[in-house]
Design goal:
It is built from two helices and six strands. The longest helix has 24 residues. The chain has a six-stranded antiparallel β-sheet, covered by helices on one side. By secondary structure, it is of the alpha+beta class.
């Protein structure tokens, strides 16, 4: 899994920035598990899908399992931190996925 595209818009009226992360694969249960260990996650089940919000240090991300787009609402001063957070989650995902494949 990789981040294919990042988008940003600073048109939020509260001074925050809306950002989007397009992933190379859809969010799955493993990705959601990593988010739960990395931040505070709230979930809402919609049939077989799960809508989630993840909050970490005043950053908020939301998405849905089975979808490859994650949206964020970030204060301008925290934009670099948001990118680092998402990159760390992707790095952990790759590591855990590899461990599952090798039976570790």
């Amino acid at each position: 899994m990789n981040i294919l595209n990042r988008s940003r818009s600073d048109r939020c009226i509260d001074g925050s920035v809306a950002c989007g992360y397009e992933l190379s694969k859809p969010v799955d249960d493993l990705f959601l598990r990593i988010l739960k260990e990395s931040g505070t996650v709230k979930i809402k089940k919609i049939g077989s899908l799960i809508m989630f919000t993840c909050e970490k240090d005043q950053m908020k991300f939301k998405g849905m399992t089975g979808d490859s787009l994650i949206l964020g609402s970030i204060q301008k001063k925290d934009l670099d931190s948001a990118d680092i957070f998402m990159e760390d989650v992707i790095r952990l995902f790759k590591h855990w996925k590899q461990d599952l494949k090798s039976g570790v």
